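Sample entry (336 residues):
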Amino acid sequence: MTTIPSQLLKQRARGPRAVIAMSEGHDPRIIKGSLAACQQGLADIILVGSHAEIARVLDHAGGSNVSGITIIDPADSAYIAEFANVYAQLRSHKEHLTEETARRTVHDPVTFAALLVRTGCAHGTVGGAVTSTSKIVRTAITMIGKAPDAPLISSLFLMYPPTNAPHGTRAMVYSDCGLLPDPNAEQLAEVARQAANSFSALMHDTPRVAMLSFSTKGSARHAHVTKVVEATNLLKDRAPELLVDGELQFDAAFEPDVGALKAPESDVAGHANVMIFPNLDAGNACYKVTQRLAGYTAIGPILQGLAKPANDLSRGCTAADVTEIIAVTVLQVQNG
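Predicted structure, serialized as tokens:
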């Protein structure tokens, strides 16, 4: 079974610690997970929010004197004037903002944390424990922006099997389970390319990409199947070095015996570790089913295609989830 992000990060050669800005610094889960990340040497942490509130929760958690934890309160931060100017410039093509409006906006902790990343005061940011995914993603796209070579932003979940899983049960990437409702063939191919690259960076293994459908190798005919076939061909043309196949049903992608029966000539069928879902209905439902019925741990949603790392948390996250998403964010920083 593939090593989880925090363990993988500990195995790497140590350099300067990345700084991760947590936009919901008051939340007890964020504080507990951040303390664990600092104590394990994964990252230095900026907790963004009300200084008094964060200090109270931090003290209660026994973290007042933990090295590597900094609190920044937007209400009295020296960065506000600079950030208001940056924000106004970023939004100038959309609207004319007064200085007062810009200052008021950048006091928002999610916006403030993203601007810490944009201006180089932090290397990455994490939020979503109490904030909607739409706000986390929208703010990241607006404040941090897309990577120069990324035509879109997508998301993935790292799926880790339970400790009592049978020998050989593998970790996987599921994508896209959080952002794109109904990607076309072009978009689906890009989601798969991003997910394969993320798998290599975050799991340190060779990606085997399955383009999922309700059909395997022509067993059904429908426009939905055609889309997956087209996306598969586009990806093969653009990234011929990737191991990718489709269209495949999930059982054909995951189970070696079924893969050998349904797609005997495939080098992916039965051994896929990057599962690309045709739409958000399928992706979101399947990651939750895998999590709840199979006992897998789902880490994410992790954002792909941004200029600098920004990641989301489920509002049902635990402190352990927070620690792992911090580790993921640091791995993204290290992989540029």
